[in-house]
Amino acid sequence: MRRLQSVLRRSSRCERRRPHIMLRKSVTESFGAAISCLSAADLTDTVVRRSKRMMLDTLGVGLLGTKTSVFHKALQYSMRYQALENSRVWGRPGLTLPPHHASFVNGIAVHSMDFDDTWHPATHPSGAVLPPLLALAETMPRRPSGLELLLAFNVGIEVQGRLMRFSKEARNIPKRFHPPSVVGVMGSAAATASLLGLTPGQCVESLAIAASSAGAPMANAATQTKPLHIGNAARWGLEASQLALLGLQGNQQILDMESGFGVFYPDYSPEPLAHGAPFRWVLEDQEVAVKRFPAHLGMHWVADAAAAVRAELFSRRPEADLGQVRRVVLRVPESRYINCPFPATEHQARHSFQFNACTALLDGQVTVGSFSRPQRDRPALKDLLLKVQLENPEDNPANFNSMYCEVTVDTEQGESFTARCNTFYGHWRKPLTQQDLTKKFVGNASAVLPLEAVEGIVSVIDNIEKMPDLSLLGSLLQMSNVEESPVSVSLMN
Questions:
Q1: Alpha-carbon distance 359 to 364, whole Å?
Q2: Count of CB atoms situated within 10 Å of the CB of 144
């Protein structure tokens, strides 16, 4: 209760400054003021409910991600470093790292399989924010409460959402910069600045410092380097807020200038962030997409359409042989980095319209196991990939809010089957039920943790605003699992 009263007193103090803050002309100053002054009293029931879903899903995909090769490489590197303060590595009992490196490896785990949540305009919002907050919380002299974590998490999500809305280009599937490396580091800086209780001026400096670590090229998509973009965003944002706390300074107009944050978007048009009561959160107006299988978001449209074609084909011809398919046509948005006809690696497969469509045609679904080498090397899959043609209709923009995927299968017998997906299950317009989201988390987390810990995490996140501190969550994330469970499977189509 004392912690809640402290947060609410902070809100009251900032409330008296708000009329003055609203008169400021600087976009950067308005962001700094909002980061510093937003309080738990500004959170709405919708925002709390949605952000809890994001937290639970992020922890689940992060735990599963600790089994990947890219996580192991990053962990091996990070274990070279020691510090006086240390934070837990998820899913590794007793293992701690300096908070920046814990943020780094846990962030990598979250994005290691491209299984984390996605927003519009396009980014992966949670992975850049939750790992640094949990790492920071473990090292603070006064351990923050669950309510304070919930507030800081939403501040980090909000800053990302606002920054992306300063560009029309950001609404489309990205071509130049991977968005989490651009806005994610700013969200991490904002979130950790909020948790540290920085002043408005210090929050401005935190954003300015973070901007110098922003940006990564899309050329590294579909490689093991892509998950590092989330890990770096988590790490550098935390470092920025801690440097700001020590008095380091940057350009206090960083969000206002074309040569500042505007370098990432040619049509950048920033606006001040007004935070008078009642505050309207971006998350209030738009859900995030939660993936049912670990692949680029665009793959979920094509997989659902292909599974629907398969269902229709076998309902008409139960004895159908997919080896008798003459042609598969995919009508999808134009985007080079997810047009990968013959993926050679698991990361390329996660970014291949062709691979995910053919997998769904053969199996009726795409799962975690679909990207394993034995599944990728199946002769039936390779044969089907040779028959795929891609078309990019003019009415199908490369935009996660308005795109569609259409799949047509022509058989050797002269029959044709077509299905179209406009909104897949898990999209922000068609969110997973709480039951299915929890099912996804349990499946993922059970691959690393014992059931006792998995159920405990579900309970902690469900009651996060009531938790006096986060020590229980940290312990659960490292509980030993003597017999590891099989890798999780995805939800139903």
A1: 8
A2: 24
Closest CA to 213 of 246, 189, 248: 189
Position of tokens 């701690």?
96
Contact 63, 445 (CB under 8 A): yes
**For residue 365, what are its two tokens?**
């679904």
Q: Apex CA 63: angle with CA 58 and CA 68, to 5°?
A: 115
CA 439 to mean position of chain CA atoms: 18
The neighbour count for residue 335, using CB atoms within 10 Å, is: 19
CA 351 to chain centre: 16
Q: Where are the alpha helices (H) located in 212-351, listed in sequence order?
A: 226-245, 282-285, 298-316, 346-349
pLDDT per residue over 85-95, tens digit each? Answer: 899 999 999 99
pLDDT band at 416 (very low <50, low <70, confident <90, very high): very high
The token pair that represents 18 in the structure block: 């708000």
E strand or H helix that includes residue 200 = helix 200-211
Q: How confident is the model at residue 174 (pLDDT cuts 50, 70, 90)?
A: confident
Beta-bridge partner residues of 416: 410
Angle ∠(308,314,315) on CA atoms, nearest 5: 85
Token digits of residue 394: 């003019």
Report CA torsion sign: 106, 107, 108, 113.
positive
Beta carbons of 110 and 131 less than 8 angstroms apart: yes
Question: CA 287 to CA 210: how far, in whole Å?
Answer: 26
pTM over 0.90, yes/no: yes
The amino acid at residue 396 is: N
Phi first, then psi, for residue 245 (nearest 5°) are -60, -30
In whole angstroms, give the CA distance from residue 14 to residue 198. Answer: 12
Task: Give the separation between CA 309 and CA 408, rounded to whole angstroms.
Answer: 7
Half-sphere exposure of 34 (CA within 13 A, CB side): 29
d(CA 448, CA 451) in angstroms, rounded, equals 9
Spatial CA neighbour of 115 closest among 277, 294, 240, 271: 294
User: How many C-alpha atoms does 380 have within 13 Å on its Cβ side?
Assistant: 13
With a CB cutoff of 8 Å and minimum separation 6, the contacts of 440 are 57, 60, 290, 292, 432, 488, 490, 491
Q: Do 389 and 329 touch, CB atoms closer than 8 A? A: yes
Residue 307's alpha-carbon distances to 114, 237, 299, 316, in angstroms, are: 21, 40, 12, 14
In whole angstroms, what separates CA 336 from the centre of its chain? 21
